[in-house]
Amino acid sequence: MSFALDYFNQNRKLVLTKLNTLGKILDELNCNSDSQKVRRLIEQMDQEQFRIAVVGEFSRGKSTFINALLGKRILPSSAIPTTTILNTISYHPVPSIQIHYRDETKPSRMITEEDFAKLVAPMVPEQGNEQSEREYSEQYRYLQSIKFAEIGYPISFCKDGVQIIDTPGTNDLDPAREEITNNIIPKSDAAILLLSATKILSESEVSFLRDRLLANDIQKIFVVINYKDNLKTQEDVQKVLAYAGEHLQDILKEPKIFMVTAKEALNARRAADGEQLIGRRGPLKIWDLKDTGFTELEQVLADFLQFERGAVKLKKPIQQAVKMVDQVLEKQITFGKRALTTQIQDLQLKVQEFYPKIQRMKLSGKETLRKVELELKKEENVLAAWYDEQLQQITQNGMATFERHRALSKQEISSNVENAIAPMERALHETKKQKITNTIKNLVMTLSKNVNEEWAQMDRDLQRLWTDEESNPTLAISVSNSLDAGAPSLFSEIYQDLDEAWANEEGFLGKLAIGAGYAVTFIVNVAVSIFSMLFGEDEKTKMRRQLEEQFNGKRREKVTAFRQEWKGWIKAVQRKYDEAIAQHLSQLENQLTTLLQNTRLEQTDVQKNLEILERQEARLKMIKEELQLLFVNMNQKSEKVGAQG
Ligand SMILES: Nc1nc2c(ncn2[C@@H]2O[C@H](COP(=O)(O)OP(=O)(O)OP(=O)(O)O)[C@@H](O)[C@H]2O)c(=O)[nH]1
Ligand SMILES: [Mg+2]
């Protein structure tokens, strides 16, 4: 088996084991909110997948390629444009296909394989045949209402949490290109750009790569040339590879280029599975899988995923676990030990004084959160208006480019307009990200200043319980760095999550973004041209109107999606904010309880408790060390493989 992720799986298991142990220690220490956080990390790790997105123009063999990886004909493929919706394929013990709709209020639905096979691009209707035209537009509307199809299959390729995304073919000016570039590829671990050996690197493919795909991490792009079987000699294969290498070098620096035949690889795997494959002229001649190019490609892909992407995936849980260990060591262990060994005068009384303060903190936290929400809501209209205006500028530029090139062929016009708008759309996406992130960060930071200061003060008061008692004031533990007055400490996780949200499907917003703004466009084009035929417009006028309608339609859709997205952000911020406050409160309450309990302890119990704390301390330090070591090893391995690749 060439596709294996053993190295990653081992490391993943190790991290999970450590997290489980950490969870248990936290339970022993009664740190409930921390242990819940660990459980959530474990849950997130369970849901985390390696995503491979397959993209390219029409009929490059994307769906066949995926079928070949899976070793089964799961996705429909044919010589005419076929795939119209996004499909995700992942492991499921029983085969299932679930349709998710754009309209979030519409529940997703299980469908049969037969029904799924019908979700392909409909045949162009017979001109003048009303029924055929009606059926066509009905089918079109239905396809457009679908966000994506989620296919589950008991397939070994996906067993270790690999998800594959099949995308519809796109050409110049297809709005789906933007969605692929800005939402699907950033959230994928690898992107496979499929080309055809016999139509290698069209102008539109080059512009897709240069102006759109490259906005992403260049490392994750694999260029796969399909239809190797259509090349007659080994010499031809070398020629095509050399041509691609030469032309891609400038764009990709060190391009990963592979040559495969998806059709023969699929056949080889079906035959190996015991299927009798009969063609028109009798039994098919089956290729050796090695010769299809799949063995090599799968090996490199698996190594890339498990070494490089694997390190990225485990980084966050490791960092969070280490941070949590540090906090517990300081707030529970060191604190606990000190509480056992230092006598504090009038402790009961002093501790009681904290409780009303905690109540006040709770209230002011809630109050601030309300303000944050209110202000974020106010921003929606401002941001949406800004976004709409930016989109209008892109439309204007697109239409002006059309006019400048009106005399050229349709193909050339498309390519010119695409070249004009692609960089603008790209830049807008980046600015939009910045704007969203900054707006949230600034608001949370400004409005939370008081809450943060109050917390820091509380922490200092807690420390003062000792400094008043102990003769040597330097013994006082300094207030944890993260709680320096004024620093936006309590909510630092929100800022971190914000930064990562754009590249992580499991992150801040949850499973929200995929396919959100995806358009079934080529059908739109056909539909519009039928409309034009009825009204007898000339070709260019028709194209102009079609283009303008597309721009305007997309603009409306995008602004609506943007508002939706903003609402999602507000909800996510609210949840995180609430969590941050709850966690801090429970830590504090825990510390106070520890103090009170100590006053009732006999000397023998004090000794026993000290020993328990010391054992827990040793275990926690061990977890931290092991996780850090693993992290270092993974990074070294990833660098080594990266350097070889
Ligand atoms: N000879 C040959 N035919 C192939 C190969 N890969 C795919 N095909 C055929 O090419 C046609 C298009 O394949 P699809 O898998 O539907 O291509 P696609 O990129 O998914 O197409 P869209 O979804 O329409 O964008 C089908 O008839 C496939 O059987 C190959 O390696 N060799
Ligand atoms: Mg397809």
Write the layout of secondary structure elements.
Blueprint: H1 6-28, H2 32-47, E1 50-56, H3 62-70, E2 87-91, E3 96-101, E4 109-111, H4 113-117, H5 130-145, E5 146-153, E6 162-166, H6 176-184, E7 190-196, H7 203-212, E8 221-226, H8 234-252, E9 256-259, H9 262-272, E10 278-279, E11 282-283, H10 294-341, H11 347-352, H12 354-404, H13 410-447, H14 449-467, H15 492-501, H16 521-535, H17 539-599, H18 603-644
Parallel strand pairs: 1-6, 1-7, 2-5, 7-8, 8-9
Antiparallel strand pairs: 2-6, 3-4, 3-5, 10-11
This protein binds guanosine-5'-triphosphate and magnesium ion.
Summarize the structure.
By secondary structure, the chain is of the alpha/beta class. It has helices at 6-28, 32-47, 62-70, 113-117, 130-145, 176-184, 203-212, 234-252, 262-272, 294-341, 347-352, 354-404, 410-447, 449-467, 492-501, 521-535, 539-599, 603-644, and strands spanning 50-56, 87-91, 96-101, 109-111, 146-153, 162-166, 190-196, 221-226, 256-259, 278-279, 282-283. It contains 18 helices and eleven strands.
